[in-house]
Amino acid sequence: MLQKTDSNATWFVVAALGLFFIGGLLTTVAPPLLDKSWNKPFENTDPAKGPTGKLVGYTDQEMRGYRIYVREGCKYCHTQQVRTLQADTIRSGWKGVPAPVSTPDEFVNDYRQTFGTKRTGPDLARVGGKYNKQWHAAHFRNPRDLVPGSIMPPFPWIADNPQELDDLVAYLQTRGRAKDWRPDNDYEK
Amino acid sequence: MAVQPTIASAPVVAGQDFHQDTTVKMFLLGAVGYFAIVGIIALIIAAKFVWPGFLGTISYFTYGRMRPLHVNGMLFGWLLAADMGLAYYIVPRLCGVKLWSEKLGVATSILWNIIIVSAIFSLLGGYQKGLEYADLPTPVAILVVIAWVMFGVNIFATIATRKYQQMYVSTWYLMGTILWTAFVYLTGNFATLLPGVTGVNQANLTWMYTHNAVGLIFTPAGLAVSYYFIPRASNTPLFSHKLSMIGFWSLAFVYVWTGAHHMIHGPISQWLQTISIVFSVMLLIPVWAVVYNFIATLKGQWHQLSDNISLKFLMSGTVFYLLTCFQGPMHSLRSVSAIVSKTDWIPGHAHMAVLGTFSFMAMAGVYYVVPRIFKTTLHSEALANWSFWLFLIGGLGMFTSLWLGGFWQGWQWNNPAIPFIDTVVALKAVWMVRFLSGIIIFSGIVLFMFNILSTAIGAGQRQTIAQPATAKA
Amino acid sequence: MNDATYVSVYFSYFLFFLLACGAIFFFVRSLKDGYLGSDSEEPKYRMLHDDEGDLPTHPRRMS
């Protein structure tokens, strides 16, 4: 057997692909079939089960903003996931209210996943409704004006383009809003 | 050594012109050039961490566009191109036949250059696909697939006409690379774009790709290179052919399962996380089998490291491989992941894998191969030695500063009393060290490139001087 | 997120069992075929000499 994979290229190819496909199929094709929450949009009306709310699709404007987010590679520094760590829920929280943990059903409409691998800047999973448009405009022009010590690059070509700025802010305001998690409902527009 | 007589009586079957090696030359020189070009981009983005306004007001040079260029440029422009060039060198020699089609090889090399150049412009223009490691826009990704098929056909056809039936380890690893890469690349670049593949589902496919881009593309390619050049450069037979088999087949089975460990604690099914953790820990099996084989090969031969530049790179690459693949399984564990995940530890880990391990192995191959295919001697052994120490010192400076910084950052994040911006400011010293280490690494790249290009360009002049050395056989 | 942790644990045990069986099977088969002798180590010696004429090396590296 071993000799065959060693001396016969056809045997080798079959064995190498066979072993690869066991794990390959079970970890890519099987999970979405087993875990329905990967493809079913979030919806909850029962407060006993956690935050209520409903995941709605992106509007055209939000979609344009989403494309800008992808174009500028924002996800290379900003993750979008509140992990099952207490510190994450508190850091993503607002005014003393911890943010709910991110679940797969909140991301069903994302045409490009933006979970990210590196958190150079803060997590954006629940940034929607935290800052108003004026804040974002000033922040994109020069982040250090508002947050001394920040190393975020300035984005003058977005801040100077009213259309792009509106679109991008509209997208950011959707982040984490599927779940109504702030009891005062004090979300910025 | 008992085997020395075998080497001395090695039959010289054909003349030096048996292998044409045009493809090898084109791939390797191109790869070395891109290494230096992308090295500049690496320095710029390291500088952006220290001086965030640096080149910041021009959209083409903003961090979010330069980082994918750095990643893709290093992975595809330098490392994969170098590994492919070395494969064109290794496989015909192991099979005892000529490369199946030199013309196809040259065409592949030209296409590869077209891919890299179009990648540079499209990524800086913001035409990124938005998926990590698969940032190249779809038309370019299609070209990559075509080039890969051309490469695969050429290598497999060479193997099919081989003179010796039983294959050497490097041949398996290269065949594995070609087969797995095909499917891994299709998954990451095309399956992710299928309609209905969104959110977590897409992320799962992306992690399957990004993880296996390293695990099933660069690992087998880098190991193929090491399995060939460690015995060749030290003139010592490999410790064990059978042990290498355990390493290879366990790699083939285990690696592909681990993608979801990029989302430990994240919004992905817990059971999938558990599976990925279990298999990540099992990765120790292929890694230790390989590392033991390499280390045992050099038993009694370690003195050769003092004046053999290829061996220096290969063996330090082996040590980095052991370290990086110990880190990998360890920070898949939930408790460790809670601290290091998403911090600067991760770039430290990734750079030890791609720069410290696989680039070291590829550079060893380039230092070994280029003088031979140009039938000359290396331009300067001293400069090569300098490049090694610059890479090693710069690399260690970068890895260790990022690990320590990342660990510290992770502890700070887990204490919500510390505002996030304070954890950013705290790391500025670390990023400064990283930038300075980057300058050292870049000097190493420049010396490496200069040495290799001088060897290639000056080949004609030194050829006559080098002739007497062939009397060795 | 429905948690199937326990199912996955049993699945893993099952998989490891299959894996162990497969490994033992291949090992025994190869042993029977007489593959695990010294003959199988031949490629590692052969790869040290190929069809090229020997190469010019740095003078110090010649032995």
Average pLDDT over all residues of chain C: 68
Order of helices and strands of chain B: HHHHHHHHHHHHHHHHH
Determine Rg of chain B (CA atoms, Å): 22 Å
Shape of chain C: elongated
The biggest beta sheet of chain B is recorded as: none
Q: Biggest interface between protein chains, with counts per chain? A: A-B, 78 and 84 residues
Reported for the largest beta sheet of chain C, the result is: none
Provide a descriptive summary of the structure in words:
The complex is a heterotrimer of chains A (about 190), B (about 475) and C (about 60). Chain A has about 190 residues and is an all-alpha fold. Chain A folds into 2 domains: about 1-35; about 55-175, Cytochrome c-like domain (Cytochrome Bc1 Complex, Chain D, domain 2, Orthogonal Bundle). Helices cover about 40% and strands about 0% of the residues of chain A. Chain A has helices spanning about 1-5, 10-30, 30-35, 60-70, 85-90, 135-140, 145, 155-160, 160-175; strands at about 45, 55. Chain A has a two-stranded antiparallel ribbon with strand order 1-2. In chain A, helix 4 packs across helix 9 (about 160-175). Mean pLDDT of chain B is about 90; it is low at about 1-15 and about 465-473. Chain B has a single domain (about 20-460), classed as Cytochrome C Oxidase, Chain A (Up-down Bundle), CATH 1.20.210.10. Chain B contains 17 helices and no strands. Chain B has helices spanning about 5-10, 20-50, 65-95, 100-125, 140-160, 170-190, 200-235, 240-255, 270-280, 285-295, 310-330, 335-340, 345-375, 380-415, 420-425, 430-455, 460-465. The longest helix of chain B is centred in the middle third of the chain and has 36 residues, at about 200-235. In chain B, helix 5 (about 140-160) runs antiparallel to helix 6 and helix 13 runs antiparallel to helix 14. Chain C is mainly α and about 60 residues long. Chain C is elongated and about 55 Å long. Residues about 55-63 of chain C have low confidence and may be disordered. Chains in contact: A-B, A-C, B-C. The interface between A and B is large, with 78 and 84 residues.
